[in-house]
Amino acid sequence: MGLNDSSPGAMRNGRGLSDQWAESVVVRPRTTERHITVHKRLVLGFALSILTLIIVTAVAVVLSVRFEECGGRDRDGVTGESGSRGSGGSAKLNGSRGERTGERGDEETVQPWRNSRLPGSVRPRHYDLRLAVYMDNFTFSGEVSIELECINATRFIVLHTDRLEVRCGAGGRPANRPGGGAMRIHRHFPYPANQMYVVVLHREMKPMRVYRLNVSFDAAIEDELLGFFRSSYTLQRERRYLAVTQFSPIHARKAFPCFDEPIYKATFTLTLRHDPQYTSLSNMPVESSSLSDEDGWVTNRFARTPRMSTYYLAWAVCNFTYRETQTDSGVTIRLYARPDAISSGEGDYALHITKRLLGFYQDYFKVQYSLPKLDLLAVPKHPYAAMENWGLSVFVEQKILLDAEVSSSSYQMELTMVVVHEICHQWFGDLVTPVWWEDVWLKEGFAHFFEYVGTDFLFPKWNMEKQRFLTDVLHEVMLLDGLSSSHPISQEVEQATDINRVFDWIAYKKGAALIRMLANVMGQSLFQKGLNDYLLSHMYSNAARDDLWNKLTQAMRSEGRDIDIRGMMDRWTLQMGYPVVTISKNQSEQLPTHYITVSQEHFLYGFIGWNFFNNLYSENLQWQVPLTVAVGNASRVCSESLIWINNKTETHRIGQMDDKTWLLGNINQTGYFRVNYDLQNWKLLIQQLHTNPQIISIGNRAGLIDDAFNLARAGYLPQGVPLQLIGYLPEETSFLPWHAASRALYQLDKLLDRTDEYSLFSDYVLKQVASRYHQMGWPTNGPGNEGNVLQASYQTEELQRELIMLACSFGNKQCHRQAVAYISDWISSNKNRIPPNIRDIVYCTGVSLMDEDVWEFIWMKFHSSNAVSEKKILLEALTCSDNIFLLNRLLNLSLTSDLVPEQDVIDVIIHVGRNPQGRNLAWKYFREKWDILNARYGEALFMNSKLIGGVTEFLNTDRELNELKEFIQSSGVGAGPALPRALEIVEGNVRWHRLHRRQFYQWLRKPPNPGLG
Ligand SMILES: [Zn+2]
């Protein structure tokens, strides 16, 4: 599942701020990260659900539950099978949890439906699902016939339904099938607390026998982006509707009665009946299609699926058109979208890369794509960036349709990565599914990791896995995971409400970072071999993390390398956080000089001073750290070696060293940890960067910057070290170290921009930026250079953009003049000649520096623009104004009118908060409107935590801390993990001011000579 990402860059008040950076501290957890286009409807869910229930109750018609005993054979006459059909390693059903067979009187004492998990006494083998879809009144009626296998003798069938009122016919009816008989139903009832439906039989079902349960139901096609829902778009001024499913993680139960846990894999045959003006799609191709003589309706029967989890089932009813292509192995790929988008070719790019990606993954995993076709469906509204339903993946339009004329390269990059992510899921997720949601990172971590690997395949020059991964994944998630309010990546979940929470940054980004670390320890070929074995062993089934560790360990053993991968990885997946590894040259007299001392401790931003969890965790946590170390001097780097660190402190022998050699740990930042050194070593590394940075790899240059700033922020290093380190930036010609630096600087900027001595900081930054900024200049907007990243040199464009953003944000006069000139030209000529890649920077700078007319001009353009990406940056530019009156007006219009799309309201509030002139306003507004905001967005955990993080991250005074505490006490009950996290971040901000600000400014007032420490 793809989460919605924030836009790649945003500016406030002339100070640029990378969204990714800004939000990272905040967490965009839950599902949400990157990505969320949650709709108001989603959040109105609760109210709607009640309404729906009433409607459903009123229209529910069918409802006969019939039971047949098929005497150990399934209905197709296949001989009876033993209960262990599910293959799949350690993948086991949930167990029968003490359910005992029994007398009718036991029912009240057993009550398996009171458990939040299904009892596991029966499991589904096949669903025959028939639906009639009424698009005129947005309802559907269905019948499902579920073939069940009994595992343990039981009188109870417990399965999931939500908002489906299911009534059973009184008693069972005799079956007409030879060899089978109907079983009488004692009683049946819903158990809404666990979204379950219970059928109690008169007598027990017997293990290893197969039964059939028939249920009929009616329901509404919801307007809230979950289950089987509807949305609309406009075509030739006419409103058109479509209906599509979103079942992950627990919404299949809203569309049909089912065993809605990932372990209950089954096959599905779906039949859809609907008005012939619509097309219908599902996971599999249409097997037969017929028109009714009576009403002219079409009935599409789709081919039987392979075994799969309920949450990957999907269907859609729409009047989209498509373009298609075919892979060499004969898989048909179609992209379905609005007819106007298809005819203008906006889907062609995604179609093209999907075809290449299927080939790439088949080669990499050595496992064929399993289905005869893959449809990509572009929908106007979706709760996530995308959803990887097997054979029918659904994308929100902004993540799959591309208009190359107006799209920036970052838009294209993001879109590409979403597609790469979802296609990876066809293997990691669809084919092999995590046993339970606690290991959701098994699929999301892999898909996120392969975003970088797969994008490198498509565009090798982007260098994603070796470079961009570091800033966008590793550095970002270490910010979050360095908080004591973090959590282990594998986290226990039982309640339905907790399941949404597991889709957070930790699952996606830490998962990807750990997988990358492991892949590097194993080596590419063994890693691939292990994955291949894992996929083959668990295909069409489920797997837990131990299954993966076993296969990877076996792969290593096959080459004579004996590493207990489970033992190693359990430390990383079952413990929260990560270590800081400190490397120092031997200082003791007893050992010769080529020994180093290495120690590890739990890295925490709050490691000095008070912290709730500190004592509890940080003392006891230890990791098995694969530390790579290189030694170098002014002219060369000597061999790197891998050292396993298992204890708190260890001594290791390393190559020859003298006073001039430095040590460098975590080569290319493949490990998920920070590295610290003794101060003398920092000094030598900084000297090296100043004199000849290229000796150290690009990845390590970025890593040194990120580690130094964060170690200083947490108090592990003097504040001057990172400042001195970035003194080498004028020599830096690569994008990545600049990107790492700018992320760290914007982070500091949030802490400092209301301090008296702020100009000391901004002047220092501008001094580092100036020469490279002037050298790179501004992009030209000539023909053939319209932001098309396929042709352009991506790294150069990105560096240019980064430098312009830094220059304009921190107040470079020439940068301001250039931005103003662009805006003036646009207004006077009514032609937008601003290169797409830097429009957000120019708009924001213009609004912040120019008068009110410019704000009105941008406001007007916001209303008249049709391109999704353009609209978003215009709206964000409006938040850059210095004028409190305008900001206030924007906030009020956002919340109370239809002028701002509902999913963008939260972004408006957050961006106003990023503007130093708007901070107090946003913080006050947030508290005043909390009841309204919480009612609207509270259910969407991601939106909620994004909002809370966004308006609190810049708070850094005692007074603001107290305001936050008061707010939490009075209003914050039940807001999820976002408020405790916000509190920890703000406490960290206040602590930094108390402990470190003086030292920081002292260094800036009198920096030592460059490179001399
Ligand atoms: Zn995903």
UniProtKB/TrEMBL annotation:
Q: Which GO terms describe its cellular component?
A: cytoplasm; extracellular space; membrane
Q: Which cofactor does it need?
A: Zn(2+)
Residues annotated as domain Peptidase M1 membrane alanine aminopeptidase? 349-572
- Any one Gene Ontology biological process term? peptide catabolic process
Q: Where is this site: Transition state stabilizer?
A: 508
Topology within the bilayer: Single-pass type II membrane protein
Its localization reads: Membrane
Keyword Protein biosynthesis, does the record have it?
A: no
Active site residues per record: 422
Region: Disordered, residue numbers: 74-117
The protein's Enzyme Commission number? 3.4.19.6
The superkingdom of the source organism is Eukaryota
Q: Where does Zn(2+) bind?
A: 421, 425, 444
Q: Which UniProt keywords apply?
A: Aminopeptidase, Disulfide bond, Glycoprotein, Hydrolase, Membrane, Metal-binding, Metalloprotease, Protease, Signal-anchor, Transmembrane, Transmembrane helix, Zinc
Q: Which family does it belong to?
A: Belongs to the peptidase M1 family.
* Self-association and partners: Homodimer; disulfide-linked.
What is the recorded name of this protein? Thyrotropin-releasing hormone-degrading ectoenzyme
- Tell me which species this is from: Dicentrarchus labrax
Q: What is the lineage of its organism?
A: Eukaryota, Metazoa, Chordata, Craniata, Vertebrata
